[in-house]
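debug: dumping io for the single-chain case to check the tokenizer round-trip. Nothing else runs in this session.
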Amino acid sequence: MIRRILESAGYRVLTAFSIADTFAVLREQVPDMIILSVIMPDGHGHEVCKTIKSRMEREDHFIPIILLTSQNETKYKIAGLESGADDYMLKPPSKQELLARVHVLLRNMDLQNELREAHDKLEREFKIVGDIQRSFLPREFPSHPILKLAACYEPSQQAGGDYYDVIEIDANHWGLVMADIAGHGVSAAVVMALTQWTVKEFARGITSPSKALTKFNQILTRHLTSEHFVTMFYAVLNLQRMELTYASAGHGAMLFYSAAERNVHSLKTKNGFPLKSFEGDEYDERKEIVQAGDRILLFTDGVVEMMDENHVLYGIDRLSNLLLAHPNASSTALVDKILDDSESFRKKQERFDDFTLMVVEHL
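debug: decoded output
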């Protein structure tokens, strides 16, 4: 009867009279819908439904399933829906009810497929944006006989909002940049690109981090909308005196390992506001002498604010202890150790923020 009703409405129908027949048909055809009897000659329809839905999840495919039964009690309906069925009908269904339910489920399937296609398209676009964004990051660092640099960037999404760079201000000065753009996705990637352009365009010739941040702030304030802002740690390294001068625009304190003192301390300033907050903001400067064996560690909050499965923060202390535990590690090895330790810490916990760090090593 069901077959006649559906065929009279223009549907093409395939039939199977057992569980074995059902899976034989599914191996040959991918139907738009399955109408499944709860009671079958060689088993139970609930188990068949679970198996089909499990396969669809693995294959990222959706086929609506209607369960047919003669049982009208609520517990049977619940059992059917819990097995993965999308609808539940009593035998024998009326023509009007059957066609209405089939129409609704097929329409829902079409909408879900459209949603999946839109999602896949968005993912592809995110990947393109992410690839473009990563192309803005330095592929290699400037060379120096007694300095080695290494970095790591792991976005939480296809396109992230972190930015790091090393700017050759002039023959004797490098600018070290670590920035975090508010938000994620395409908008953060666009702001990151604008920030990168601003730094590269206006950092040259300015050896004062405070003055450089003030200039960056002026430019970004003109071009960014109110919902966007950028935190940035910016340091200028004098390559002749090995003197690090640094300032912060709302960015957390960075870490400095002193080989002579065998300790780790924070590179703290009186934090100015993030870039784009106030056009006339001023930024405090501090200085640090960099000696043989010292390490400078720049990072974004995604490193220290990641959580494990118990929602415990990774924290600045763990990062500091890792620096102390590996005083002779090269910049590249230290980046790898921090990344490995963070992965071990969070286990399978999802990363909700970008993970970005850069190490400057004085040989």
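debug: round-trip ok. The first helix runs from residue 2 to 8.
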